[in-house]
Amino acid sequence: MEDRKIRVLVAKPGLDGHDRGVKVVARGLRDAGMEVIYTGLHQTPQQVAETALQEDVDVVGLSVLSGAHMTLVPKIKELLIENDLKDVLLLVGGIVPEDDAKKLMADGHADRIFTPGDSIDSITAYIFDWFKQKAES
Amino acid sequence: MQQLVEDLLAGNRRAAARLISQVENDDPQKRELLKEIFPHTGRAYVIGVTGAPGSGKSSLVDCLLQQMRSESLKVGVIGVDPTSPFSGGAILGDRIRMQEHALDQDVFIRSMGTRGSLGGLARATREAIQVLDAFGKDIILVETVGVGQSEIDIVKTADSTMVVLTPAGGDSVQTIKAGIMEIADLFVVNKADLPGAERTTTEINLMLDMKEDNRWRPPVLCTVSVRGEGIETVWESLKEHRCFLEDSGRLMKIRRERVRRELTEQVEYLVKSRIWDRVKEQIEFDSLVEKIVLRRRDPYSAAYELLEKIAFYGEDDKEGG
Amino acid sequence: MDLEKLERIKELKEVWEKELEDLKERCEPAETVSGQPVKILYTPLDTENLDYESDLGFPGRYPYTRGVQPNMYRGRLWTMRQFSGFGDAYDSNRRYRYLLEQGQTGLSVAFDMPTLMGYDSDSDRSLGEVGRCGVAIDSLEDMEILFDQIPLDQVTTSMTINGPAAILWCMYLATAEKQGISLDKVGGTIQNDILKEYIAQKSWIFPPEPSMRLITDIFEFATDHVPKWNTISISGYHIREAGSTAVQELAFTLADGFAYVEAGINAGLDVDRFAPRLSFFFNSHIDFFEEICKYRAARRIWARRMKEKYGAKDPRSLKMRFHTQTAGCSLTAQEPENNIVRTAYEALSAVLGGTQSLHTNSMDEVLALPSEKAVKIALRTQQVLAYETGVANTIDPLAGSYFIEAVTDKMEAEAEKYFKRIDELGGVLPAIDQGFFQQEIADAAYEFQKAVDRGEQVLVGVNRYRTDEPMELEILKIDPEVERKQLERLKRLKENRDGDKVTACLEELKRCAAASDNLIPKILDAVRAYATEGEITATLKEVFGEYREKPLF
Q: Of B50, B154, C190, C243, which has the highest C-beta tally within 10 A?
């Protein structure tokens, strides 16, 4: 009997230590039945990409509150592609101004940006939908 | 699949990761795949790390990684965390302590949720070990969930098992009494800079003194993993234990036992799945359930009846009454 | 109040409660934002045991419930201190001078992430972070530029810096020296509160033991040489922002405070020599009355414990002085203009709670660093409060309210329960090691988020009255050139300074770190020789090691 679980790497790249959001989200994803791999603070883009590879995750969720998103997110996306992980869903949460969010998505650096005010449910629902679509296609 | 196995044998990390997912997810091709890689396994040495939550297992594993890497050994790590019985989800955080090694190409770290297994390991830990073994790892470190008393699966899986304790209050010794004593090849008293370390060490030694058949006397070592103290000795002791197992012929014995157990399990698995395939063909199954719920039947005779129908149960096995 | 009167009130209350039974209540649970139940009415029955003299007293008198100065805002208004910093030292210097021109009365420096974590701008770790969420400071040179044309004997400066606090403080002192100002005339605050970093804010560098040593070194040096400096700002702000309740903020912050007092005493310092320079920093969240009670309870607990447990005799050791910042986590990205309103209420409760200084958040801080316009509105909010509303005219105006006094008492009692639990765990550091605070905060944060998601905790414009209209707000953009320019300047600095002198200073620092000398004079020497923050931190790391946390969910 196949027992497929959605595996999510929740990572905090960069130097900021604001982990309230990342922890709340990790807990929410667990309570929605996902396996959440958390790697702690201050991860380099290389660490994030390599961890995603070794853990064979379906989703990478990045939490960035330091304002470094325009540097870190594209870098991580680039490394994921290098690791043959271009199909991994890349989500970003944090303090990301709307213009930056639009640009990151338009350039294909992130699939979706969540900002303060988005509910946990909206994040889990997004992941479930994506996963279902992927399984069907 | 063939391609994945080839890639794995060629040292491709992505292939290793994917294959572990397949065994973990009970992929329909799982057995085929394990069959393929089996000839390439049996080389890795498996070390189990168990102990209560908060004893510092992950930092200790991190320190050991450092030691092993300084000898250019290729290392795989499997960290197991509990799956929530309510949601089926899990937060896997063991590798946080080991992220310094994340970029080392000769270290492969994988986190697993127990997914319903109760013995301290994940359901597919053994299969994941096989994959990492075939992948060419010299050492595979397995960090258990660490809930204390039910950590018995690790001895069936590891060649050497180390039990990690902290010098905290009197209950540490209670835990030892409750069954960890028997499984340890090595005791590590971590956070030994805290008060009570000496007492804990003495108590463990006293207990070991009472044990008979001490061909291998488990050493009791002190470490402070956050400062890397005492790690070299732990690593040396692990190597000694390995030599002991090899020289005394015990390693062969352990591994033979393991093969026997695994073969038995495989047979049981096949028997079980064949029976179930046929039981499920019987349309009565659901209606029997209904009848039992309504107390019109009892589950005991209903079971016999089902098996008789698929002609598995012989007359001889039938119990009277 | 005599017993007869209380009996009479009890009877009347029962009659009134009967009447209530037939009336419907709104569906939202009557709780504070921290989940504390709130009664529909408070009466003298709730303050039966209140003793004016021993529980409240007079402003500037023990137990300081009503305020730390006898005349409070009638003597001097609170300091309006807007936390700011971005880009490089030139950018931030311009912003500081603008704020001073607008009537701000103190400075407050926000550093960028590399500076907070002890990395230079040219470290791999700093990529993309230089000047982003604060100003980039690498060396004394940057600090000199930051305070160019700002005489350091005429403003007080607060610096939010913890792990590398000693280094940045030395840079500030060296800047003052260069301006020809003697250190006994220099005033300000460094946050320097490492315990809350382990608990909540997570900008740590060294493990707890050497970190505590650096802190007591600062206590000692300041007592002797920089007497006007507040050597630590024991912070509940970040604990609250990480998701704690009001009671947790109160209890954990004070527990940290007592831990520093004990560290000072254990380092051989007399409590009355360093305790007067300890200051606090609280959050002002959206639950108006709960916050006011929190400040009042905080002052009372501090005074009582300092006197009774630690034997402090100097009244200044008993007075809890604190800075307040309105709650960043109460702001919403949706309809950010609403944040002006939230911030105004939060500022009001800080003032009614008797704060010594105040930062009001700008409406756009949930989106980016504040724009000039947004920061001006935030400052104006304080000025309206101070000069138009009249709330500063009388001291502690809510004292005696049955509600306020009952809740103040309750918060004190709840905090005492936490102190007991922390003691049972062996104190603050062992409790951190066991993840006690972290788990309590993570649980509270998760509960809060779930309440928001269920719609029980109402956020206007987010889970109620949401419009999804496009936002029209000018946002401060950090020029990507900042990073390049900063790197260039750092490179030039390293080429032009006396390299041998730097090496010698760092070696001496390393030697002393391994011994037990006070490190401040050595750090000061290194800073004067233009050793960079990253170099000094790296030197200390060699001796002290680095902290790594075990996260809890």
A: B50
In this prediction, residue B319 has a pLDDT band, given cuts at 50, 70 and 90, of very low
**Cβ neighbours, 10 Å, residue B195:** 9
Comparing B36-50, C390-404, C465-479, the range with the smallest average pLDDT is C465-479
For residue B13, the model assigns a pLDDT of 96
- Report the C-alpha gap between C158 and A16 in whole angstroms: 20
Q: Which residues pair with B109 in a beta bridge?
A: B77
Nearest chain A Cα distance for residue B224, angstroms: 21
Residues 6+ apart with CB under 8 A from C97: C149, C150
Tokens matching residue B102: 């994340």
Question: Structure tokens of C248?
Answer: 């947790």
Contact B99, A47 (CB under 8 A): yes
Mind telling me how many Å the CA of C478 is from chain B's nearest CA?
Answer: 31
Q: What is the Cα–Cα distance from A66 to A25, expressed in whole angstroms?
A: 18
State the burial class of residue B71 (Cβ atoms within 10 Å of its Cβ: 0-12, 13-18, 19+).
Answer: exposed
| CATH 3.40.50.300 domain extents, chain B | 40-247
Q: Name the one residue in this structure whose structure tokens are 């139940």.
A: C37
Does residue C456 sit in helix, strand or coil? Answer: coil
How many pairs of residues across A and B have Cβ atoms under 8 Å apart?
91
For residue C214, with 0-12 CB atoms within 10 Å meaning exposed, 13-18 middle and 19 or more buried, which class applies? buried
Q: How high is the pLDDT of residue A67?
A: 86
**Residue B69: what residue type?**
R
The residue written with tokens 């460094």 in the block is C190
Q: Quote the ipTM score.
A: 0.95
Inside any domain, residue A122? yes
Backbone torsions φ then ψ of A45, nearest 5 degrees: -55, -35
Are A27 and B91 in contact (CB < 8 Å)? Answer: yes
Give how many domains chain A has, as a whole number.
1
Superfamily name with CATH number, domain C52-71+79-418:
Methylmalonyl-CoA mutase (3.20.20.240)
CATH superfamily of B40-247: P-loop containing nucleotide triphosphate hydrolases (3.40.50.300)
Q: CA-to-CA distance for B67 and B163, rounded, in angstroms?
A: 18
Domain extents in chain C: 52-71+79-418, 499-544
Residue C327 tokens read as 């709650």
Reduce the DSSP state of residue C390 to 3 states and report it: coil
**Tens digit of each residue's pLDDT (9 = 90 or more) over C325-384:** 999 999 998 899 999 999 999 999 999 999 999 999 999 998 888 998 999 999 999 999
Does the pLDDT of residue C518 top 90, yes or no?
yes
The whole-angstrom separation of Cα C298 and Cα C246 is: 11
Burial class (CB in 10 A: 0-12, 13-18, 19+), B169: exposed
Of the candidates B130, B207, B194, B132, the residue with the CA atom closest to the CA atom of residue B167: B194
Q: Which residues of A98-134 are buried (b: 16+ CB within 10 A; e: fewer)?
A: eebbeebeeeebbbbbbbbbbbbeebbebbeebbeee
Contact criterion met (CB < 8 Å) for C125 and A17: no
DSSP A22: H
Contact C548 B91 (CB under 8 A): no
Q: Quick check: A102 contacting C, CB < 8 Å?
A: no
Q: Which residues contact A24 (CB under 8 A, 6 or more apart)?
A: A120, C243, C442, C445, C446, C449
Instruction: Read off the pLDDT of each residue in B249-256 and give the average, rounded to a whole number.
Output: 92
Query: What value does the mean pLDDT take over residues C209-222?
Result: 95
Give the pairing of strands A7-11 and A35-38.
parallel
Domain that holds residue A111: 7-136
Residues facing residue C31 across a β-bridge: C37
Domain at A93, CATH number: 3.40.50.280
Which pTM does this prediction carry?
Answer: 0.88
pLDDT band at B169 (very low <50, low <70, confident <90, very high): low
- pLDDT higher than 90, residue C97: yes
Reduced to 3 states (helix: H, G, I; strand: E, B; else coil), residue C34 is: coil
